[in-house]
Amino acid sequence: MTFERFIALLVQVGIPEEILNDADESWQIRHDLALTSAETVALQAKIEHLAPLGFSLWGAEDYSLGEIISLLR
To answer: Whose CB among 28, 43, 44, 68 lies 3.0–4.6 Å from 62's, allowing a Cys bridge?
Structure first.
């Protein structure tokens, strides 16, 4: 999974491209992107479809984009 492909996934779940233009791998799902519940559910489903890793975006950890990308490699 490349950074660009992950950004495309975020756009698919409803994150506006103009917000993502400044994003980098250090950005966190909750803190920086402030995903709604619906966006989180959609992103979780897309991640599970790509690679059933068994990790959850609903846990206590606020994953960075880079951490998620690394898990999907």
So the answer is: 28
Cα distances (angstroms) measured from residue 9 to each of 27, 60, 66 = 15, 22, 14
- 63 Cβ neighbours under 8 A, 6+ residues apart: 28, 29, 57
Closest listed residue to residue 53, CA positions, set 71, 38, 37 = 71
Write out the two tokens for 51. Answer: 């690679």
Domains of the chain are: 3-71 (1.10.1200)
Mean pLDDT, residues 31-56? 90
pLDDT value at residue 72: 87
Is the pLDDT at 33 greater than 90, yes or no? yes
